[in-house]
Amino acid sequence: MQADQTNAPARSWVIRRIGFSVFWACSAIALALCLLWQKYLPAVLILAALFLAGLIYRTATRFAGISQNLVDHGVAANETQKKDSLVSVIICSVDPVKYELVCSNLRERFGDSPYEIIGIHDAKSLCEGYNRGIGKSRGDILIFCHDDIEIISPSFSSLVRTHLQTFDVIGCAGTSRLKDSKWMSSGDPYVHGVLAYPAANAWPSDLFHVSVWGGPELTQVKGIQALDGFFIAANRRVVDSVQFDEETFDGFHGYDTDFTYAAFLHGFEVAVCKDILIAHKSTVGDFEGVYKTYASRFREKYKDHLPEKASDDTTVQVDFPYVSRAQMLKAWV
Questions:
Q1: Which residues sit opposite 143 in a β-bridge?
Q2: How many beta carbons lie within 10 A of that of residue 222, not counting itself?
Q3: pLDDT digit string (tens) for 216-261?
Q4: Cβ atoms of residues 52 and 27 within 8 Å
Q5: Alpha-carbon span 200 to 281, nearest angstrom
């Protein structure tokens, strides 16, 4: 509405300016014709034509400049709106202590930036819980995260908003060539990310082990096909097209790879953003037992898309042990 209110007075002013200019130009030409009709008529006509052409050119140039300023103002306002858009954070949690810790961390990281936290405390599965959270959410940006994470990056809020102006879905770790339901299976050079784990049993922790995949550079890796689910952020248009598959993945495995891979197959831009540093209490997932059931379901669902073999399965993981919070902030932030 502000752009419309700005356009009307500016254009009205230009129209009045053009009208007055044309009126005075015609008056000058008429006066010249009356005084110099006989002797200097050809010269007067030429000068009058040149004067009128110059006047029209100047007015048109000024009008174009005003119009461009209005367009630039609209673009700037749109970018500001993106940066200030509401973020909905959806968390499935049955642990009140963990939930309060992560909510406190989120409040600190968002500060005055608009956000909402939607807690799902009775999810039948992560897919079901996240879909229910989507239905309750109001944000243009949605974050799906575990309840046992701590966001280390002080500029987390601005980083998420900035990256989601370029990409559709972002995370902290993933693969650019998915082989199966476990994103790390593809090996190098397809795995990318940065993730911190607590060095002791205490949580939250002040001492961490930091793992880096795909090189130490803090870059945004595009062309990603699937992400780890401890943290995923997406634009609203993604969940309008891709939902979590709660029928196939009715437990607590496979939900993240399925959702992000489905988004990739739908043509959305997925990326790993290695400048968002997050600590995750859980270290190594359980890839045995019930996990294999969901891995089999994943393979069946995407059998026409997954390669037989993506690499030699070797992954180079660079570890930085016993890193303090201050050292992390200095090195990664």
A1: 89, 233
A2: 12
A3: 777 899 999 999 999 999 999 999 999 999 999 999 999 999 999 9
A4: no
A5: 10
From the CB of residue 131, how many other CB atoms can be counted at a distance below 10 Å?
Answer: 18
- Token readout for 85 is 């858009």
In sequence order, the 6+-apart residues with CB closer than 8 A to the CB of 322 are 199, 207, 208, 209
- The label of the residue with tokens 């995923």 reads 232
Q: How many angstroms separate the CA atoms of 320 and 330, rounded?
A: 14
Helix (H) or strand (E) holding 224: none
Q: Report how far residue 209's alpha carbon sits from residue 118's, in angstroms, rounded to the nearest whole number.
A: 30
Tokens encoding 227: 């992400």
Which two tokens mark 61? 């140039």
- Cα–Cα distance, 178 to 193 (Å, whole number): 15
Residue pair 115/86 in contact (Cβ under 8 Å)? The answer is yes
Return the pLDDT at 316: 72
DSSP per-residue letters across 67-88? HHHHHHHHHHHHHHHHHT--EE
DSSP 3-state assignment of 223? coil
* Tens-digit pLDDT profile for residues 293-305: 999 999 999 999 9
Residues 171 and 277 sit within 8 Å (Cβ to Cβ) = no
Contact 315, 213 (CB under 8 A): yes
- Residue among 227, 219, 222, 239 nearest 167 (CA): 222
> What stretches of the chain adopt beta strand conformation (E)?
87-92, 115-120, 141-145, 149-151, 169-171, 173-175, 191-198, 207-213, 220-221, 226-227, 231-235, 270-273, 278-280, 317-324
Whole-prediction pTM: 0.75
Q: Is the peptide bond before 198 cis (omega within 30 degrees of 0)?
A: no
Tokens read off for 268: 């959305």
Cβ count within 10 A of residue 212: 20
Per-residue pLDDT band at 12 (split at 50, 70, 90)? very low
Nearest partner of 118 among 144, 90, 96, judged by Cα: 90
